[in-house]
UniProtKB/TrEMBL annotation:
SMART domains referenced in this protein's UniProt entry, alphabetically: MGS (SM00851)
Keywords annotated in UniProt: Lyase
Function: Catalyzes the formation of methylglyoxal from dihydroxyacetone phosphate.
Catalytic center residues: D62 (proton donor/acceptor)
HAMAP family, alphabetized: Methylglyoxal_synth
Catalytic activity: dihydroxyacetone phosphate = methylglyoxal + phosphate
One GO CC term, this protein: cytosol
GO biological process assignments: methylglyoxal biosynthetic process
Upper lineage: Bacteria, Bacillati, Actinomycetota, Actinomycetes, Micrococcales
Domain MGS-like: 1-147
Gene Ontology molecular-function annotations: methylglyoxal synthase activity
Binding residue positions for substrate: H10, K14, T36, G37, T38, T39, S56, G57, H89
UniProt cross-references to Gene3D superfamilies, sorted A to Z: Methylglyoxal synthase-like domain
Name of protein: Methylglyoxal synthase
Length: 147
């Protein structure tokens, strides 16, 4: 079962993401790939795989990926963000990480966690991450069902 995987990297982390993606190219080729602007262009060129590209992160790409997560279209997020470099679009970065957490999407923020996710036997199975019920009715007791 192919996953819909978003790949995002801040400028200082792009080379690290490219190296990781090259190493995992054969596995990534079995899935549908998405990425923000420059990262997507680099991945498509280096891997020779199709990548659905959104806008650059600072001009809305992070929010576009977040919207696709909320819609249930992106089911995994690999986001090599740079915790040591201030980002002008830091609120968008935090919003993307928050929306991924809200919708119970597996997320990797570094090589170690990405390695564990990409090599998990669940990746190639029919495993579906359980999305919370966030409809108004589910909140009648003050908490979402399944949350």
């Amino acid at each position: 079962m192919p996953r819909h995987i978003a790949l995002v990297a801040h400028d200082n982390m792009k080379v690290e993401l490219l190296r990781w993606a090259e190493f995992n190219r054969d596995t990534l080729a079995e899935h549908v790939l998405y990425a923000t602007g420059t990262t997507g262009t680099m991945l498509e060129f280096e891997l020779g795989l199709p990548v659905h590209r959104f806008l650059s992160g600072p001009v809305g790409g992070d929010q576009q990926i977040g919207a696709k997560i909320a819609e249930g279209q992106i089911t995994m997020l690999i986001f090599f963000w740079d915790p040591l470099e201030p980002q002008p679009h830091d609120p968008d970065v935090k919003a993307l990480l928050r929306i991924g957490t809200v919708w119970n999407v597996p997320m990797a923020c570094n090589v170690a966690s990405a390695d564990l996710m990409i090599s998990s036997p669940l990746l190639g199975s029919d495993y579906e991450n359980r999305r919370p019920d966030l409809t108004p009715r589910a909140w009648e007791d003050g908490r979402p069902a399944g949350g």
